[in-house]
Amino acid sequence: MNILVIEDEKKIASLIRKELEAQGFVVDVTHRGDEGFTMATTRPYDVLVLDIMLPGRDGLSILRGLRERGMSVPVILLTARGELNERLEGLQLGADDYLTKPFYVEELCARIHAVGRRASGNAQSLLAVADLHLDLLTREVRRGTRHIELTTREFALLERLMRSPGRIFSRAQILEHVWNCDFDPGSNLVDVYVQRLRRKIDDLETERLIETVRGVGYRIQNPAARDASR
Ligand code: CA
Predict the structure, then answer these.
(1) Where does residue 212 rank: exposed (0-12), middle (13-18), buried (19+ CB within 10 A)?
(2) Ligand 1 centre from 6 Cα, in Å?
(3) Residue 89 contacts by C-beta under 8 Å, 6 or more apart in sequence?
(4) Which of 160, 198, 202, 163 is CA-nearest to residue 179?
(5) How far is ligand 1, taken at its centre, from the CA of residue 15, in Å?
(6) How far is the CA of 106 from the centre of ligand 1 (A)?
(7) Domains in the chain, start-ordered, CATH in brackets?
(8) What is the pLDDT along the chain (230 residues), one digit of tens a residue?
(9) Rounded to the nearest whole angstrom, what is the distance from the C-alpha of residue 202 to the centroid of ligand 1?
(10) How far is the CA of 135 from the centre of ligand 1 (A)?
């Protein structure tokens, strides 16, 4: 997917670029609204990430200009905490989603995937392993009929595991995917989060899905697939 990021805070813009590129997106960044509008109207992008307060031309004006031209490219607005009116106006103008700063870049990635999928009409938003379901659009998680509340990081961790049932992820891989940072892989951050996830997902259940592979890492196992291969 080709993403255009229009954001004048250079540090945020470069963080977004780094993470999106790590996720395999092709990313253009501009720090100016007028330039961003020109790029958005002359090049094909799959998703726009659009700040509101921008030099040259503000984000809402860009959005209005695109929709007036009949361009339906999905737009995710980046808004500041106090910008409630701008957020509402943005949604009325046809923004597909918004994030309030500060936000986790992983969350932005998830939203981009979601609006990109919606735009391409692909309904592949539901991950399932046994009776565990994770909806990437609504961000709902269920085990059987039980609804499970997860934090952003727990959700990202579970999504990572559920995208590849049976695959073992090392702590370093999980740190890189879920936290996108250089925590000491010797730290027990991953173990702490896996324990939390396990408490929410597996406690009270007879079938345990999150598995520790001693000395290697973690995986989510698919009991149905495992039984079928016997
Ligand atoms: Ca700004």
Answers:
(1) middle
(2) 9
(3) 60
(4) 160
(5) 15
(6) 20
(7) 2-122 (3.40.50.2300), 126-228 (1.10.10.10)
(8) 889 999 999 999 999 999 998 888 889 999 999 999 999 998 888 899 999 999 999 999 999 999 998 888 999 999 988 888 999 999 999 999 999 999 999 899 989 988 877 766 544 578 888 899 998 878 899 999 999 999 888 998 998 898 878 889 988 888 877 776 656 666 788 899 999 999 999 998 888 999 999 888 999 987 666 555 54
(9) 43
(10) 31
